[in-house]
What does this fold into?
Amino acid sequence: QVQLVESGGGLVQPGGSLRLSCAASGFPFSVYNMRWYRQAPGKERELVAAIGVTTSGTNYADSVKGRFTISRDNAKNTVYLQMNILGPEDTAVYYCNAEHPIRPRYWGQGTQVTVSS
It folds into this structure.
């Protein structure tokens, strides 16, 4: 059974930090590109960060560059999103996504991040 289980969301004050985790199981994690998306109320889902099968290939949305860091641990089948200097504009549900050119695509159930004082 394929699972992507996000954790680490919650309520944080502006300027604070959170670290999201996404634990994968049921598919060959190490051959998948991994991504974090987010969706704020009333807005479309947007790509936040992506990492290739090796840790050297990463990409970020302009809005999070310099504040967010995506990483992965293939030994633990887990991808992370370190989020620093959070602002209210970062409030959203964050989703983990597994992408592969020819294999099925998978999504997690999402974790809520709320930035508010």
Observations:
- The chain has a mean pLDDT of 96.
- The chain is about 0% helix and 50% strand.
